[in-house]
Design goal:
Blueprint: H1 2-28, H2 32-37, E1 61-68, E2 72-80, E3 92-100, H3 105-116, E4 121-124, E5 127-145, E6 157-177, E7 186-190, E8 193-197, E9 201-226, E10 229-239, E11 245-249, E12 255-258, E13 263-265, H4 268-289, E14 294-305
Antiparallel strand pairs: 1-2, 1-14, 2-3, 3-5, 4-5, 5-6, 6-9, 7-8, 8-12, 9-10, 9-11, 10-14, 12-13
Length: 306
């Protein structure tokens, strides 16, 4: 009995110390949940957009300068980039096109005079055309479609549509001269009425003025030379309902009319009749010109595409 009492007393003395040790060990230990969270962390992939540097501005910007057969010095600024992944974006381009004869005016007119020669062009009835001149300009907004995309060589072929505004003025001096005696006089018939100028020479001006506007359809190509330098060419027509208007300016000074019996000076009423007869004489030529409702457009030059 005495031994049992000693055994129980030993258990009571050891149990608190054992319990305290267990509590201390539990306090120093991290919860299983926390341990799991602070164990090993896996790296998280960050999504980033990769942009092709070949489609960033100014890549695709294009500048061109050349000659337009019907409008003079030609230039354009636009955009066309073959590096897009999109089927359509790599095939589309845009241009603002403009031209004027002003910087080349003297050279163009000298060339026309050279073609006409010093004596001009004889058009019959003693009349000669000489000293020709051309003035013109145009503005256009164009959309280019490259059907072959960025395919080598074929990628430069394009179909172009757009809208044009422009003007073309043609003029030339009209000279009539009678060779013979100093007192010879220049006579002519206009709508069945005979007229003449006192003296043996007359000067006038023939002109055509074409203000045109309308949709454009054409084709062309960009042929690479080196780096971004290319040769460009365009050919097409502007569909317009506006046609060229003919004009003929003839002097009324020293003008006389045959009245059936004798020559008489043309008065104010006679001048009105003369101007009306002149317009009627031009009407046939104007009727033929009114059938021409397609303004041709041909351009060639050099361009650079960034």
């Amino acid at each position: 009995m005495k031994k049992i009492s000693i055994f129980i007393m030993s258990i009571l003395l050891i149990s608190p110390a054992f319990a305290e040790t267990e509590v201390n060990q539990n306090e120093n230990a991290l919860p299983t949940e926390v341990l799991d969270q602070t164990s090993v962390t896996e790296p998280v992939a960050v999504e980033t957009d990769v942009i092709n540097p070949d489609i960033k501005f100014p890549h695709g910007l294009q500048l061109g300068v050349g000659i337009s057969v019907t409008s003079g010095l030609n230039g354009f600024v636009g955009y066309a980039n073959k590096n897009f992944d999109s089927f359509w974006l790599k095939r589309l381009g845009f241009r603002a096109d403009f031209a004027t004869t002003t910087p080349l005016k003297s050279m163009i007119n000298s060339g026309i005079d050279g073609l006409m020669g010093d004596e001009g062009i004889d058009i019959g009835d003693g009349l000669t055309i000489k000293d020709g001149a051309i003035e013109g300009h145009h503005f256009a907004a164009l959309v280019d479609f490259y059907p072959f995309g960025n395919t080598w060589f074929l990628g430069g072929i394009r179909i172009t549509g757009g809208y044009y505004f422009g003007n073309l003025e043609l003029s030339a001096n009209l000279t009539g001269k009678v060779d013979g005696l100093p007192d010879s006089e220049f006579a002519f018939s206009l709508e069945g009425v005979d007229y003449k100028y006192i003296g043996n020479e007359v000067h006038g001006t023939a002109k055509a003025d074409w203000n045109y506007s309308g949709p454009y359809l054409g084709a062309g190509f960009d042929l690479g030379i080196i780096a971004g330098f290319k040769i460009y060419m365009d050919a097409g027509v502007v569909f317009t309902n506006k046609t060229a208007q003919l004009g003929l300016d003839l002097p009324t000074e020293n003008l006389q009319k045959w009245n059936g019996m004798d020559w008489e000076a043309v008065d104010l009423n006679g001048i009105k009749e003369f101007e009306q007869a002149k317009q009627e004489a031009l009407s046939d030529a104007q009727d033929e010109l009114d059938k021409l409702k397609f303004y041709p457009m041909v351009k060639i030059g050099f361009m650079y595409r960034f």
